[in-house]
Specification:
Mean pLDDT: 82
Low-confidence stretches: none
Radius of gyration: 18 Å
Shape: globular
Order of helices and strands: HHHHHHHH
Distance between the termini: 53 Å
Strand content: under 5%
Length: 189
């Protein structure tokens, strides 16, 4: 959409940024989709291939974070384009991972919102309905925090981007059941 808009308003900078984001996102999906296509791990709530993809995404985000820190949180020119590409690759990888879980998207609000509203109205709730609601609840505060950090505390932005991916990857390696049991024990004390 932004690429088409850039053509309409003849903004070469927007065209470059949008084109790089689109290409990076596509590259991330191309890298991660074959990993997510592993049918051997289709059983269970959390397929191991999702964790593998999230760990790879974390590595891409670490590269982004290094670039962000090198530029002092204010990248410009070529550095800005490279960082856009890195984040887009990470988002493409994340989308391919989440696709394996079914029924929701972490990268676009309208598709998830449509799925939730349609499920509520028709009472036909697809698999992953609760996760979709969680995504919607998390997106708005996440966007607010991200925009405030990028404006007022840019040095913290990489940590905020990487932390959720790290927590989910670690929890999945530890086993969600073990994590759930641990928190259940703490509440009963």
């Amino acid at each position: 959409m932004l690429l088409a808009l850039s053509a309409g308003i003849q903004d070469p900078s927007l065209a470059v940024h949008s084109g790089v984001a689109l290409a990076g996102y596509s590259a991330g999906v191309l890298l991660a989709a074959p990993i997510g296509a592993n049918r051997a791990d289709d059983e269970g709530t959390w397929p191991p291939s999702v964790t593998t993809i999230l760990v790879a995404e974390f590595c891409v985000l670490a590269v982004f974070s290094a670039g962000w820190e090198i530029t002092g949180g204010r990248p410009g020119g070529t550095a800005q384009v490279l960082l856009i590409a890195a984040l887009a690759v990470g988002m493409g990888m994340q989308s391919a991972a989440v696709r394996k879980l079914g029924g929701m998207s972490t990268t676009y609000l309208t598709g998830t919102l449509t799925s939730v509203i349609a499920g509520l109205v028709t009472r036909d709730r697809p698999p992953g309905f609760a996760r979709s609601i969680g995504v919607l609840v998390a997106i708005v505060p996440g966007a607010v925090v991200g925009s405030l950090l990028s404006q007022y505390a840019p040095a913290w932005l990489p940590a905020v981007i990487m932390a959720p991916v790290a927590v989910v990857a670690i929890a999945s390696v530890a086993g969600f059941e073990q994590v759930k049991a641990h928190f259940g024990q703490r509440r009963s004390r």
